[in-house]
């Protein structure tokens, strides 16, 4: 049964809530917002401070159910639109939902993170374990994270930097940028946008990058052991280093570097595909395509 921890009602002339409560290891924090901005920053206290801006007709409810602490707005006249500024321990898992709209910013977390919003961008720095960031209309940006990472947008770009772990990134109308990534399992796809990947190619790893109507550019570290499969219908292919093609057809071919233990699949229907050295994914290809058939 839900037991009310804190219920802070706006006084007639007040438009702010400011309250702090203790938390303990094993608990998780869930924030729901109908429309507004949610900003969560880590601090070193074993407590959560909630500062919220809202109208005098709305209130912020903080309740607990077992290990889950929930924060949400309430109004007698319909869903509440609240702007949150929250300080929380870095160790506490976070879940944020914004329906239909909310912009979410999280900084300094060292725990699991789940964010789902319909209209609004998502920006996260930090995260460990399962990390899932989803929006329909907006950008998704994640940095300094590690674990199982899932990033999804329908109408917006995706950016992942300085992170490690399994990566899944998908958007319909937007670019995907993956920089300084350490992973043995990466899958990124977009319909209308470019893909850039600069990261590890580990022995035995699996990497797949697919765009229907955009360029795909991937860095290959020196001494990588990888079997590369390339497919493009109407775009070009170029490499910043020499390779020898085999099993070449008009639109598809393969080649192997080193032992070929990792697998790298590159596909673009209407865009070009380029291979670069680490740190050079933004470079244009050489005029010499640098491959032999």
In short:
The chain has strands at residues 3-9, 16-22, 28-33, 37-43, 47-53, 58-65, 68-75, 83-89, 94-101, 103-109, 113-119, 122-126, 128-137, 140-143, 146-155, 158-171, 176-182, 185-190, 195-199, 206-211, 216-219, 226-232, 237-239, 243-244, 252-257, 262-268, 273-276, 291-292.
Can you give keywords for this protein?
single chain; 293 residues; mainly beta; 26-stranded mixed sheet; two-stranded parallel sheet; disordered N terminus
Low-confidence stretches: 1-14
Q: Describe the sheet with the most strands.
A: 26 strands, mixed
Order of helices and strands: EEEEEEEEEEEEEEEEEEEEEEEEEEEE
Strand content: over 45%
Class by SSE composition:
mainly beta
Rg over CA atoms, rounded to whole Å, is 23 Å
Figure out the total of helices. Answer: 0
What's the count of strands? 28
Determine the fraction of residues in helical runs and give it as a percent range.
under 10%
Distance between the termini: 69 Å
> Mean of residue pLDDT?
89
Principal-axis shape equals: elongated
């Amino acid at each position: 049964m839900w037991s009310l921890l804190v219920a802070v009602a706006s006084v007639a002339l007040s438009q702010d809530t400011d309250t702090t409560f203790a938390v303990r290891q094993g608990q998780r924090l869930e924030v729901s917002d109908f429309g507004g901005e949610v900003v969560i920053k880590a601090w070193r206290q074993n407590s959560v401070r909630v500062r919220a801006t809202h109208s005098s007709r709305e209130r912020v409810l903080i309740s607990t159910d077992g290990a889950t602490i929930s924060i949400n707005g309430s109004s007698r006249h319909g869903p509440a639109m609240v702007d949150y500024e929250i300080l929380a321990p870095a160790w506490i898992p976070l879940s944020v939902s914004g329906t239909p709209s909310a912009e979410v910013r999280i900084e300094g977390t060292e725990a699991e993170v789940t964010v789902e919003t319909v209209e609004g961008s998502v920006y996260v720095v930090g995260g460990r374990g399962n990390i899932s960031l989803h929006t329909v209309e907006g950008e998704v940006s994640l940095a300094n994270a590690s674990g199982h990472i899932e990033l999804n947008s329908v109408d917006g770009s995706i950016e992942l930097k300085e992170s490690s772990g399994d990566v899944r990134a998908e958007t319909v109308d937007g670019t995907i940028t993956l920089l300084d990534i350490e992973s043995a399992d990466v899958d990124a796809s977009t319909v209308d946008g470019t893909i850039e990947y600069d990261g590890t190619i580990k022995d035995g790893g699996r990497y797949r990058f697919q765009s229907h109507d955009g360029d795909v550019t991937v860095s290959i570290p020196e001494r990588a052991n990888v079997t590369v499969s390339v497919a493009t219908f109407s775009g070009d292919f170029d490499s910043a280093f020499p390779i020898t093609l085999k099993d070449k057809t008009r639109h598809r071919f393969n080649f192997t570097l080193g032992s070929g233990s990792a697998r790298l699949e590159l596909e673009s229907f209407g865009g070009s595909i380029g291979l670069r050295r680490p740190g050079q994914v933004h470079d244009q290809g050489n005029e010499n395509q640098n491959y032999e058939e």
